[in-house]
Amino acid sequence: MNLLTRKESLALYRSVKKPGDVRALLLGDLFFLLLVGMGRRDMNRDFLFERCREVQASPDGHLDLWAREHYKSTIITVAKTIQDVLRDPELTVGIFSHSRPIAKAFLRQIKREFEGNALLQELFPHIRPPEKGEKRTWSEDEGIIVRRETNPKEATIEAWGLVDGQPIGKHFALLIYDDVVTPESVTTPEMIAKTTDAWRVSLNLGAHGGRRRMIGTRYHAADTYSVILNQGSVSPRIYPATADGTYDGEPVFLSREVLAEKRRDMGPFVFACQMLQNPLADRAQGFRAEWLRYWRPTEELWRPMNRVILCDPASSKKKDSDYTVLCVVGWNADKSLYLIHGERARLNLTERTAAVFRLARDYDPLFVGYEQYGMQSDIEHLQGEMARMNYHFAIRPLGGRTAKPDRIRRLVPWFEQGRVFLPAQANFRDGEGRIRNFTTEFVEEEYSSFPVSLHDDMLDCLSRAVDPDVAVPWPDAADGRSPMQKEMDRMREQARLVGGNSHGLKYAYGGRA
Predict the structure, then answer these.
(1) Low-confidence residues of the chain, pLDDT below 50?
(2) How far apart (Å, rounded) are the C-alpha atoms in residues 61 and 97?
(3) Which of 108, 178, 340, 384 could bond 328 through an S-S bridge, CB–CB 3.0 to 4.6 Å?
């Protein structure tokens, strides 16, 4: 049967007359169930026919990420669940979405099909709604129970929220997760973690030996689906709106004109998430891994540079707030920018002030560039502390009307030309006393995913180095060598003295020479 094309299958369907044959097709052919059994004439498309065949052959253990309006919920959450209940009245199904109203919408669609589909009721009487006086649960709140022999505490199909109000003490034979990730669930790292943790807790609601299905849409590069995929919990089945997953690729279902309208109306990032199932498809405006350059800061190397401390302050220590970021940047004679040191933590005013003074003493900058948006009190406090301690340094307020993403994009040509060097290791102690690596966090959490990273405070702070208002001059080279050349010459000399033949700097953060 699976070897037939859509047109050949349609010819076969037209030849089926006996109720027994119709019943067999409804139980074994998902496309037939939708097209004929449920009267969905809109299903008569090759793409949908192929998806039905694929889901029929392997319905469980997948994360199905298909473009919006490509019928993934219709085929999997609704039709396949109906088919499973037609086959097995004793089945128990839990449908989970990010919030319970979303899950109830899927249950409502199934419930209406059972209530109003005369063909299915005739061939499968157990799906009929309760008759007068028949005591069977049949509601969106409590679930629906078809006629069955056993009496488990779970309804045949129930709908629950993943984050708001999971059930207690239930164990479903089939767990279906549809739309557990929403735009609201990816607003902060804490919200993503909350959704991911809720999903993990919900796994306990599956029966021993039970099955799982996941259906959804991407909303962020680091969303819960990303976590689930990275840990290998499911097998991905991804169908973007175009054959190659690019903006200009050949459409697989919707017309090119419709996709063009959606891209225009959604914008590139939302289109990349919902239609291409790839939050990083908008990365043409971002940074590339091959542009990264690293060095090993020593005082001998950074002392000849013109140094500035840049501060991007955040006023709150709450878990969902932005970080305060401090970058010590060196302008070198080779016309490159060298990040000498970086720190990122949630700090209050007293802690921010202490951090600025500590770095000023350690690195003796030309000035401290301090972002002033809503932080004038910070600068006044710093000036007051300078007078109190009789330790002074220049502070330059940084402002401007350029939007943060556009300000960050000023760094793109600098990284592309290999003119920004990050420290291979940049350890610092955060506000909670933990030792962290600034370079690791910079690369993995912001650089690699811009412009769709959850936070962009490190990139924003560093971008101030190429702000026209900063205008730090380049120093003259003492001997014509860049810090990188000096470091390589030093290592070669060391190797020669100890009898070795070669040493080289490993270009990776945390790597060892």
Answers:
(1) 1, 318, 500-513
(2) 17
(3) 340
Q: How far apart are CA 211 and CA 60, in angstroms?
A: 6
Locus of tokens 């000849």: 304
Question: Rg for the chain (alpha carbons), in Å?
Answer: 30
Tokens 């690019």, located at residue: 246
User: Residue 159: beta bridge partners?
Assistant: 95
Contacts of 61 (CB under 8 A, 6+ apart): 211, 212, 213, 234, 235
Q: Are strands 138-139 and 427-429 parallel, antiparallel or unpaired?
A: unpaired
- Structure tokens given for 336: 């490159």
pLDDT at 501: 40
Q: In the β-sheet with 337-345, what is the strand arrangement from edge to edge?
A: 294-295, 420-423, 337-345, 324-331, 306-312, 367-371, 395-398
User: C-alpha angle 411/319/404, rounded to 5°?
Assistant: 25
What DSSP element (H or E) covers 93? Answer: strand 93-97
Task: Determine the Cα–Cα distance for residues 102 and 96; give it in Å rounded to an integer.
Answer: 8
Instruction: Report H helices in 3-65.
Output: 6-15, 19-28, 30-32, 46-57
**How far from the centroid of its chain's Cα atoms is residue 415's Cα?**
24
How far, in Å, CA of 151 to CA of 92, rounded?
11
Rounded to the nearest 5°, which phi and psi values hold at 279?
-60, -15
pLDDT of residue 513: 34
